[in-house]
Amino acid sequence: MSAAVFRAMLLGLVRDRAALAMSFLLPSVFFMIFATIFAGATGEQLRLKIAMADEVHTETSGRLLRALALDPALVPVGEGTLSADEVRDLVRRGTADVGLVLRSDAEPLESMGGFGRAPIVIVSDPVRGVAVPMLTGQVQKAYFSALPDVALGSVVGLVEDQFIELTDEQREELEAGLLDLKVETEDAAGRGETVGWGFQDLFEREDVAGQSAARNHVAYYAGAVAVLFLLFSAVHGAISLLEERESGIVDRILAGPGSTRVMVDGKFLFLVVQGFAQVGVIFVLAWILYDVDLISHLPLWAWTTLLVSAAAAALALTVATACRTKRQAQTLSNVAILVLSALGGSMVPRFFMPPWLQDIGWLTPNAWALEAYTALFWRDEPASALLLPWSMLILATVLGLLASRRLARRMERL
Amino acid sequence: MGSDVVSNLRTSEADAPLLEVRGVERAFNGRPALRGVDLCLRRGEIYGLLGPNGAGKTSLVRAICGRLRLDGGSVRLRGRDPARRPEARRRLGLVPQDVALYSDLTARENLEVFGRLLGLASREARSSAANALETIGLADRADDRLATLSGGMRRRVNIAAGILHRPEVLLLDEPTVGVDPSAREAIHDLLRRLWKDGLAILLTTHDLDQAEELAHRVGLLVEGRIRAEGPPETLIRETFGESKEVAVVLSGPLAADGRALLEDAGLEPVGDGTTWIGPLGGGLDAFSDLGQRLSEAGVAVGELRVREPGLRGVYFRLTGEELPS
Question: Which residue in chain A has the smallest CA separation from B92?
Answer without folding.
Answer: A256
